[in-house]
Prior knowledge:
This protein is of the alpha/beta class. It folds into three domains: 20-112, no CATH class; 130-151 and 269-425, Nucleotidyltransferase, domain 5 (2-Layer Sandwich); 155-262. Helix content is 46%, strand content 11%. The protein has helices at 29-38, 43-47, 61-73, 79-88, 90-96, 103-112, 114-130, 158-179, 183-186, 194-225, 310-321, 337-342, 370-380, 382-388, 391-405, 416-438; strands at 138-147, 155-157, 260-262, 269-272, 278-289, 295-301, 327-330, 349-352. Strands 1, 4, 5, 6, 7 and 8 form a six-stranded mixed β-sheet that branches. Strands 2-3 form a two-stranded antiparallel ribbon. A hairpin with a 5-residue loop joins strand 4 and strand 5 (278-289). The longest helix has 32 residues, at 194-225. It is flat, with a radius of gyration of 28 Å.
Amino acid sequence: xxxxxxxxxxxxxxxxxxxxxxxxxxxxxxxxxxxxxxxxxxxxxxxxxxxxxxxxxxxxxxxxxxxxxxxxxxxxxxxxxxxxxxxxxxxxxxxxxxxxxxxxxxxxxxxxxxxxxxxxxxxxxxxxxxxxxxxxxxxxxxxxxxxxxxxxxxxxxxxxxxxxxxxxxxxxxxxxxxxxxxxxxxxxxxxxxxxxxxxxxxxxxxxxxxxxxxxxxxxxxxxxxxxxxxxxxxxxxxxxxxxxxxxxxxxxxxxxxxxxxxxxxxxxxxxxxxxxxxxxxxxxxxxxxxxxxxxxxxxxxxxxxxxxxxxxxxxxxxxxxxxxxxxxxxxxxxxxxxxxxxxxxxxxxxxxxxxxxxxxxxxxxxxxxxxxxxxxxxxxxxxxxxxxxxxxxxxxxxxxxxxxxxxxxxxxxxxxxxxxxxxxxxxxxxxxxxxxxxxxx
Length: 441
């Protein structure tokens, strides 16, 4: 007896119009993102098109925002890949409602509305609070390095810049002299586009000179912060300007020979990565609320150190939610006597580690570092130890979700301002994904 199968007719045409709402199961992330975006204020997006006429009809901003956020929430950050998935991915077809913007349209929309997209982060945090997912009882902060959109092979050290400048100037002079040579001497030379060669080397020389000046400017700022001045003759001096012994290795404002600068993303910096090695990166920071591990503040800098970021994160939490957190947890990277002094009147209770996992074996001079000594006493108390133990699972998990669940390990954009906005877009997408998973719990 022949087997009996359920009907399978690939060529069968539907007799009634399809409903997009039937394509995905109830409770799907796409529906949650769509409903969430519909509840947000998108007037800033619409304002850009207020004067557009009937002949200039862009895609609807709400649709574009939903598609971009869903892309980031599911690990598709490339506009080209996102445009391709509009045909292949059922969820994206539902969100786009059978619209198919090209990858350039998606890329241009993101670039044009980058600040508006990042501003939605605050609205989503407020939405999470309305849902009871943000309490501002305990907030933990942490930093993580994310790769810049910059090639390590398109960079140069300060030492190499100095040599390359000399070499390029000599090559340009040689080409200019060759261009001026007599015709009878040129006829035996191979054909060369001399003006093009000169321009190519001149452009390269200009790029190297600009990079060298950026390195020097940065080093001048560092030296000035250390109390140096251009006339110090490499001699360290006390507050009265008198030499106090020793000698600086380099003149004021002269970078180390191995100091590097990128030609692709000039705002990125070389930073050490986990597991060893170095990459051009940015230092991203998050503040995570204890109630549901919602990211309530997302900031980013091109400084590898965390020691000055605590006031910035606390200010961002208050700006985003209108209130200070009751308690803030941070690891030893945020430790700084100057920051403790700055935040001594903060309404938030600070619990900041002074060593690995909150352990500090070295005695602290209470006269010289009174705030650090007070923090040490707080961490030694059972209450302080119990509070700090929550930090790791509270804030490091969202950073892991960004890199391992969303798969976001490298920025698509370049430049500090654009990267700051893209990081908020990433955290916005993560929050919506987290809110969707917690819905109904």
